[in-house]
């Protein structure tokens, strides 16, 4: 079974990459599901008096979190996701997969990019690792921020699809397809900006479970300290998929723009309810390439 899952991941990545590469018009103008650097940082940069820009983006973002979720046992999770994204003029399309290590009681499962207690007894503690689920996400920028003289923000609706490539027998996924939609937004006022999103995810129900569909929302703010350093904070909420408290987390991050195409974003978060890990942290590296 692991060999079949690895083959499926390789085939899907190959198909997505070939589609993106073939659809890129010549000369045309990062925890798997957790908040990363603001989406405002993902837009391709077009230099003045030049039509050239980068068309692809690669992100890697190792992270660690732990928490007891209101129980007597801690859950410890390590994620190593990587994302390949094609950057169009007004849209982008990305694919994310990851390596996951889960050290948790037997009833804890990775759902929507985060460990979750599910129905049933906790059972013996297990340590499992392997590939996580694959997530496809596309968004379209329908409205651009007109500038500080207007209150109208950038608006970017998106669709996402989770393909169950993780091993559900190890608790690394549910073995079911999830899909959802939402809207991202951001607004800049000089060096200060605000951003957030609202989403709804239709959850697949694995055998013996009755997961709730999941609305979610986040709101954050940031400040460009210098042209190369940005600090931001984000409050992220999602509905609980079954019993217990809704996950609610406060995220903090600092983005260092190393060059025109490379940025590094260390980040930390604290869980504000028993539906979230107690704390976590990681670092996201972003590289934009494919300039023409």
Topology record:
Layout: H1 2-23, E1 54-60, E2 63-67, E3 75-87, E4 91-105, E5 108-111, E6 114-117, E7 125-131, E8 134-140, E9 154-163, E10 178-189, E11 192-202, E12 214-226, E13 229-238, E14 248-257, E15 262-271, E16 279-291
Antiparallel strand pairs: 1-3, 1-16, 2-3, 2-16, 3-4, 4-7, 4-8, 5-6, 8-9, 9-10, 10-11, 11-12, 12-13, 13-14, 14-15, 15-16
What this model shows, in words?
About 8% of the residues have low confidence. The longest helix has 22 residues. The strands form 2 sheets. Strands 1, 2, 3, 4, 7, 8, 9, 10, 11, 12, 13, 14, 15 and 16 form a 14-stranded antiparallel β-sheet that branches. The radius of gyration is 19 Å and the shape is globular. Helix content is 8%, strand content 52%. A hairpin with a 7-residue loop joins strand 15 and strand 16. It is mainly β and 292 residues long. It has a single domain, classed as Beta Barrel (Porin).
CATH superfamily: monomeric porin ompg
- Could you estimate the helical fraction of the residues in percent? under 10%
Helices, by number, come to: 1
What is the gyration radius calculated from CA atoms? 19 Å
CATH architecture: Beta Barrel
Determine the N-to-C terminus distance: 42 Å
The portion of residues forming beta strands comes to: over 45%
Structural class: mainly beta
Q: What is the CATH C-level name?
A: Mainly Beta
CATH topology: Porin
**Major sheet details:** 14 strands, antiparallel
User: Are there runs of 5+ residues with pLDDT below 50, and where?
Assistant: 8-30
Number of domains: 1
Please count the beta strands (DSSP E, at least 2 residues each). Answer: 16
What is the global morphology?
globular
């Amino acid at each position: 079974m692991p060999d079949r899952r690895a083959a499926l991941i390789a085939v899907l990545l190959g198909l997505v990459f070939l589609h993106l590469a073939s659809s890129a018009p010549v000369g045309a103008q990062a925890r798997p599901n957790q908040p990363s650097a603001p989406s405002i940082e993902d837009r391709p940069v077009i230099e003045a008096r030049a039509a050239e820009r980068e068309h692809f983006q690669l992100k890697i973002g190792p992270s660690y979190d732990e928490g007891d979720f209101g129980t007597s046992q801690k859950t410890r999770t390590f994620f190593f996701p990587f994302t390949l994204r094609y950057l169009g003029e007004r849209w982008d399309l990305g694919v994310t997969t990851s390596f996951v290590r889960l050290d948790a009681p037997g009833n804890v499962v990775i759902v929507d990019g985060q460990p979750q207690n599910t129905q049933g007894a906790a059972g013996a503690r297990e340590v499992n690792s392997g590939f996580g689920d694959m997530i496809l996400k596309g968004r379209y920028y329908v409205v651009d921020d007109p500038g500080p003289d207007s209150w109208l923000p950038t608006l970017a609706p998106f669709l996402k699809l989770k393909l169950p490539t993780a091993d559900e027998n190890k608790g690394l996924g549910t073995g079911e397809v999830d899909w959802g939609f939402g809207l991202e937004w951001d607004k800049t006022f000089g060096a200060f900006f605000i951003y957030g999103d609202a989403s709804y995810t239709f959850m697949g129900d694995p055998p013996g479970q009755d997961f709730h569909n999941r609305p979610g929302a986040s709101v954050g703010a940031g400040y460009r300290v210098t042209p190369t350093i940005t600090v931001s904070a984000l409050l992220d909420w999602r509905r609980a998929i079954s019993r217990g408290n809704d996950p609610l987390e406060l995220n903090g991050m600092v983005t260092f723009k190393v060059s025109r195409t490379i940025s590094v974003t260390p980040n930390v978060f604290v869980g504000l309810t028993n539906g979230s890990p107690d704390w976590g942290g990681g670092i996201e590296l972003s590289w934009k390439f494919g300039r023409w």
